[in-house]
Design brief:
alpha/beta
Length: 215
């Protein structure tokens, strides 16, 4: 069965980690817009310079730029059996743009976590500057990336003021997406509290149960 998924949730809910685990389990690409944007920044292109300004300020990258980046990625052959979008769409306008491409989304996984817990997680996390691996709050002893061996660093946007700004932007611009997709009956709500493995089991069970319900 093809799986075309979108993961939605505030920053700090573990969307990227869960998307990667689902990708490995189901053998479909994890398409992280964060990674795509970081690649643009690292390229040193004019587009990358514009993207970097938005990322450092905690603002969302404009819809037209994001849609072009994602559309190009979804044209690759490896998405023929499905994909997992992580970080896109983030606005109603992006969702409507994706709709116009004719690419149907099978399921939207909404991961929710209390805001105080989100702030705690973001203030205690570090990431690999090379591959984007994120060390969660539960792995306090890690100081190097287990994949690259590179020293983990604090993300520039994991500052308390920027975190609060990002959460405000999420509530205003991304949260309305839930109603957009709920109208289609494709939203799966998942409690994001607990260990990474517990959350993964909830997501997988929810998706499998809904697949059976549709059969």
């Amino acid at each position: 069965m093809d799986r075309r998924l979108v993961l939605i949730g505030p920053p700090g809910t573990g969307k990227g980690t869960q998307a990667q685990m689902l990708s490995e389990e189901w053998k479909i690409p994890h398409i992280s817009t964060g990674s795509l944007l970081r690649e643009a920044v690292e390229s040193g292109s004019e587009l990358g310079g514009v993207v970097e300004q938005y990322m450092r300020s905690g603002e969302l990258v404009p819809d037209n730029i994001m849609l072009d980046v994602v559309k190009e990625r979804l044209s690759h052959n490896d998405v023929s059996g499905g994909f997992i979008l992580d970080g896109f769409p983030r606005t109603i306008e992006q969702a409507e743009g994706l709709d116009r491409t004719g690419i149907d989304i099978d399921r939207v996984v909404y991961i929710y976590v209390d805001e105080d817990e989100i702030i705690r997680r973001l203030l205690s996390r570090y990431e690999c500057p090379k591959c984007g691996y994120i060390k969660g709050a539960e792995n306090n002893k890690e100081d190097v990336c287990p994949k690259c061996g590179v020293k983990l660093v604090r993300r520039a946007d994991d500052d308390i003021d920027i975190i609060k700004k990002r959460l405000k932007v999420y509530r205003e611009q991304t949260e309305p997406l839930l109603d957009h997709y709920k109208d289609r009956g494709i939203v799966l709500e998942v409690d994001g509290n607990g260990t990474v493995e517990e959350v993964f089991r909830r997501i997988e069970k929810g998706l499998i149960d809904e697949d059976k319900h549709q059969e």
